[in-house]
Amino acid sequence: MTAHLLSERMLLEIAEHEGLVLEAYLDSVGVLTWGFGVTDKSGHKVDRYRGKRSTVVRAIEVYEWLLRTRYLPQVIAAFRGRTLTEAQLTAALSFHWNTGAIGQADWVQSFLLGRRDKAWTEFMNWSRPREIIARRKAERDLFFDGRWSGDGVVTMYERVRANGIPDWGSARPIDIRDEVRAALAKNAGQG
Question: In this predicted model, what pLDDT tens digit does every residue of 86-104 receive, in sequence order?
Answer without folding.
Answer: 999 999 999 999 999 999 9
